[in-house]
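Bumping with the actual sequence this time:
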Amino acid sequence: QVQLVESGGGLVQAGGSLRLSCAASGRTFSTYVLGWFRQAPGKERELVGSISNRGNTNYTDSVKGRFTISRDNARNTVYLEMANLKPEDTAVYYCAARIVVSIAYAYWGQGTQVIVSS
């Protein structure tokens, strides 16, 4: 069982930066694949990016070059660094965890709101 708690959301102007954090409970954090998702009003939830248990990252095209995912296994925390934010990045951001052999994310945080003003 993994519990995830996001923090760091807020209001930022376009072009600004934010860092989201996701703190996890559990002793097997390092073995999980971690993902950041977002859901904008009226839109489906989308995968922003993920980081494997080995530290390999993947990103959706719209955030490549602007967002960076990292993890600190000693602190049981995963981060989403967001730079050059755009109004279309406005959404509730969620972190999620899955085991390596699964394609489904079984554990989810409660979400943190990010609003980018133009």
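The tokens above came from a reply further down the thread. The chain has a mean pLDDT of 96.
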